[in-house]
Task: structure prediction
Amino acid sequence: MKNKIIISLLLVWGLNLTSQEYIGAGNDEGITITSSSQFRNFAPENTINGSGMDADLMEASRFLTQTTMGYNMDDVQRVAELGLEAWVDEQMAMPVQNMTSSMYEIWEEIYGWNIDYLTAIYQENNPGAPITEEVLEDFDGDIFGPWAVDFQYAWWEGTLTGEDQLRRRVAHALSQIVVISMRSSLQDHAESFTGFYDILLENAFGSYRDIMEAVTLSPSMGVYLSHYNNPREIPSENLHPDENYAREIMQLFSIGLYELNNDGSRKMDADGNDIPTYTNEDIGELAKVFTGLGAGGVMENPWVDNPFFGMDFYIADKLEPMRMYQNFHEPGEKILLGRETIPAGQDGMTDIRQALDFLFNHPNVGPFISRQLIQRLVKSNPTPGYIDRVATVFNNNGAGERGDLGAVVKAILFDQEARSCIDLLAADSGQLLEPLLRKTHLGRVLPLTCSFDTLYVVDGDTLDRAPCPEIKYWLTGFEEVQLLRQAALGAPSVFNFYLPDHQPVGDFVTQGLVGPEYKIHDSTTAINYINGLHVVTLWNYYGASWEREIRPNTGALSIDIDSLVALVEDPEELINYLDIVFTRGQLTGETRATLRTFLDDLPSWVDSERRVRGVINLLLMSPDYTILK
Result:
């Protein structure tokens, strides 16, 4: 759509204009605007009367990119109508959707499919043979799960269909600060991941101190960072407390490596050197605190009725917090960072809570955690002032409460650096969108459908597709890890997919900037992303579960573009629509021209559906989309 704007100035004879008068931003008296067309019925006079055209929708879209795992035009319009703050309050009031319950519902369905599948094979091989209890027990022994992939199914289903998008986005951010991974010995146990993720969902707007304690007692974290069944020191047996968790809770989950000012800058000693927050001796002292923790419960099994220290994780209850086994807890005095004394002889849980209180109240925690949350939600290089403002809220939410994540999230989202147009234009503003967020965003912008056959185009002909009886939003996460190196709880180590201070070579280094996401953006993943877009948009394959062998009619997910086909008759209208839902109103003139040329140059025999798919494909590989400003 190419609007032709005609401005008629009705000047009164003798009108005396001063230097303070101008046309626009509400100064529209006596001016008539006409237009050759109206995109979504926007009035032409809005171009100069101060109300604007799409500005509110574009701001809403940019806001939703920072606050959700993805959104569509209905979401954009609702935020524009409701207002940003009211939308956040509404989101924070939504009930928590328990991921473990969702996973069990999915697993129960998959388990039933497996029984049906094995029964069919058995009957085929044993015509007329009855299905006895013994046969069913044999079937049960052949079914493995629930395991990591079932967590992925629950994560994708909730992410693609859930309304509680702000909570899920914050939990996703927290999962990259307080890290466990399915790329570990935990992979055989879906509850290890759903139970841990539920901690993050439940506390996304709660107290960071509660998260510190919950993850410390999580059996999943206990296994991942090896303080599950961590015994007291026994010199005669050369046993010493494992130091892994003690190191990482300081380095990654709370205070970081160096003493910080409230604005995130490093403190210096008299010689101008960074001041370490802890030493190896401090790690050893803190490790003594995290001794004596073992299974808090036991799963149903034929061998053990009650949990005990040293019990194998395989039969431990993955959802029950670890309990303290006092006889295996280090009883002596512990000195934390040379200034906090934990007296000898205390109950082990008292030791742990005192240590967590001490770490939580360390002045580093506010700037250390605030900076990383800003990086995950808004921008890679927040200014010291931005960090200081958010950390101040972390330190005190205004009601004397420290670590209130709900207040911290609001401080991040409504800070001038997150909302101001001037700050948006700064050279160091923005971030590379995580590949996982690009995938989830696409899956929420456009409706997902399910078909038995994926759409393929061969010699101009489209293969027929049969619809699935029921859509399953189950993705394995396997393609995301293999091609893009990112999936929910799929980090290669406790250091996440990337470090907060990662600097790509080149201008980032010379300008003193960081770009964490570029750690997993290289010549391989960049090409994989482009190829993946081709598969999603042109071949129409968004993803699928691994259950199609046992349930062939579950089909594969594909994107539904029917609502956009009509817009292609007016290419400008289509591009404007896509600009709002994908590029947040930040589509450059260069990219816009590229998309127009692409549409203009397509042969006439290319149908509307393939025209739309081609435009989406080009748009989503552009920096206008992949870089959030």
In short: DSSP finds 27 helices and twelve strands in the chain. The longest strand covers residues 6-9. Confidence is low (pLDDT under 50) at residues 1-20. The two ends are 26 Å apart (CA to CA).
